[in-house]
């Protein structure tokens, strides 16, 4: 049986989309692919990027998102990991060596985690983009790589030629936000290269005021990522989808207690016996936060008491209040929702969105 809608297919029971629909869609995709390849061969994209960026001499913020899925009409299937090997073989057979029609962050699994010279994944455009940004955006201060709804593959920053450019750009930045998705379907590959590459970039970010790191599906020991030196001007720290020892998390936050004003933790797991409330109680004694946000936090205490790793709503609320314990009650505002709590000092922080509407929904 095949399930399909608007050219997007979910392959079930090892069955393919109807051939006539697939072939028509593939022809259009192949034509666009050849045009793109010619542009990259001639480096026309680099020339256009240079020309465009030079018209924006005061540009300070760059966002790099993977919008492939919404910009083309050839998506023959949405595979799942139960039939992964069959999906990959089916794609290679019918696409006959052209680039796999899916998003960048799936490159690791479709290429078995190895990018060779004949890889169907083409990162030339990424390097050209980074080259143009380094050369033509001297005022760059904020770099966003991916988002929660548009993750990038870690190859964006870990491939050597990309990493070298980003390390040269890093000293300019006051804001760095990275959402990179590490695929774990198919053959396992070690994340050590990704961790070392990220370390090199962070070591060069001497002037950061805002740092956000998230690696959905990675669940790396994030203590390995951070350089030993601290950021003397860091005001905002956001961590997502990572594992932490409580001692390291406390050391990291305490190292920036003098300047840190916003702490955002999302889907972070504490991997030892210390509860989130204990961590919050200790950190809250020295922090001078304007805001703390906790979403889908997990610890061993929750697993032992409820059988589920994630904290319930009351524990999210208690931890948020403990982080903000130095704020007088008359200035403290608290909002909670399922699996989330946010607390802030009304005198120093104004939410950027309508919290009442968010939580009512």
How are the elements arranged and paired?
Blueprint: E1 2-5, E2 8-11, H1 19-41, H2 44-54, E3 61-64, H3 68-71, H4 84-95, H5 107-110, H6 124-136, E4 142-145, H7 155-158, H8 160-169, E5 175-179, H9 192-203, E6 210-214, E7 236-240, E8 243-244, H10 246-254, E9 262-266, E10 269-270, H11 276-284, E11 291-295, H12 300-306, H13 313-323, E12 332-337, E13 340-345, H14 355-360
Parallel strand pairs: 3-4, 4-5, 5-6, 6-7, 7-9, 8-10, 9-11
Antiparallel strand pairs: 1-2, 11-13, 12-13
Helix pairs in contact: 2-6, 6-8, 8-9, 10-11, 11-13
Describe the model.
By secondary structure, the protein is an alpha/beta fold. The chain contains 14 helices and 13 strands. It has helices at 19-41, 44-54, 68-71, 84-95, 107-110, 124-136, 155-158, 160-169, 192-203, 246-254, 276-284, 300-306, 313-323, 355-360, and strands at residues 2-5, 8-11, 61-64, 142-145, 175-179, 210-214, 236-240, 243-244, 262-266, 269-270, 291-295, 332-337, 340-345. Strands 3-4-5-6-7-9-11-13-12 form a 9-stranded mixed sheet. It starts with a strand and ends with a helix. The relative contact order is 0.07. Residues 1-16, 113-118, 184-189 and 355-361 have low confidence and may be disordered.
């Amino acid at each position: 049986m095949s399930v399909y809608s608007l050219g997007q297919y979910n392959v079930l029971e090892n069955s393919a989309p109807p051939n006539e629909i697939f072939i028509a869609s593939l022809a259009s995709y192949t034509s666009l692919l050849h045009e793109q390849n010619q542009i990259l061969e001639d480096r026309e994209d680099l020339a256009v990027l240079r020309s465009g960026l030079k018209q924006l001499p005061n540009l300070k913020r760059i966002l790099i998102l993977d919008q492939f899925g919404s910009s083309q009409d050839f998506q023959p299937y949405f595979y799942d990991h139960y039939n992964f090997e069959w999906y990959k073989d089916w794609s290679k057979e019918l696409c006959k060596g052209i680039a796999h029609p899916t998003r960048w962050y799936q490159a690791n699994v479709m290429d078995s985690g190895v990018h060779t010279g004949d890889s169907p994944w083409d990162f030339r455009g990424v390097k050209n983009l980074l080259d143009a940004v380094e050369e033509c955006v001297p005022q760059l201060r904020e770099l966003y790589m991916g988002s929660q709804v548009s993750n990038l593959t870690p190859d964006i920053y870990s491939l050597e030629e990309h990493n070298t450019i980003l390390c040269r750009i890093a000293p300019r930045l006051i804001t760095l936000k990275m959402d990179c998705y590490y695929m774990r379907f198919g053959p396992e590959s070690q994340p050590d290269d990704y961790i070392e590459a990220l370390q090199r970039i962070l070591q060069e970010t001497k002037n950061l005021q805002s740092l956000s790191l998230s690696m959905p599906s990675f669940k790396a020991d994030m203590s390995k990522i951070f350089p030993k030196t601290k950021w003397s001007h860091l005001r905002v720290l956001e961590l997502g989808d990572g594992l932490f020892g409580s001692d390291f998390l406390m050391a990291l936050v305490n190292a920036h207690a003098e300047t840190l004003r916003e702490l955002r933790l999302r889907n972070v797991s504490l991997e030892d016996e210390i509860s989130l409330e204990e961590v919050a109680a200790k950190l809250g004694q020295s922090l001078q936060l304007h805001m703390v946000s906790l979403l889908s936090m997990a610890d061993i205490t929750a697993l032992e008491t409820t059988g589920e790793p994630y904290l319930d709503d009351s524990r999210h609320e208690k931890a948020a209040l403990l982080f903000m314990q130095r704020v007088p009650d008359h200035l403290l505002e608290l909002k909670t929702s399922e699996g989330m709590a946010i607390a802030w000092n009304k005198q120093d922080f104004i939410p950027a969105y309508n919290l009442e509407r968010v939580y009512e929904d």
